[in-house]
């Protein structure tokens, strides 16, 4: 009987360990896939959103990110050597919203929104605020929000905030997002 338990332990232990490793790597792969989707969305927003005139005059698009280094690296890889309307794209990482200056857009990863109170006082005209915390758009904090359910990423836009800030959003983009007013 004891040898049967020993044999089962030898067989079951690696199976359980393998299962834990497999599901752990699936969760990690899922996080990576979601981050990849978000970075591509951010890049594509540049094509489908028109900035106010005063922001359109700068020589480059500054994509500012309050996010973990992995997401900053992915966003940098997506925009590397790319140009939009004849202007280069640069990704600038920040630790605090109060440090971010001269940004065309600011992406606030959910963990960065601990500082969300500063959004109330945030005043950078012509800066697109993108975030992924629950209620980022519906709560009136941001203009564009990512809503993640499993591996699905949907985009929500606060059309009122976008229009008040002088942004013009392509009708093509509006067809594929959830609109808040």
Automatic annotation (TrEMBL):
A Pfam family it matches: DUF4154
Highest rank taxon of the organism: Bacteria
InterPro entries: YfiR/HmsC-like (IPR025293)
This protein's name: YfiR family protein
Record organism: Neptunomonas qingdaonensis
High-level lineage: Bacteria, Pseudomonadati, Pseudomonadota, Gammaproteobacteria, Oceanospirillales
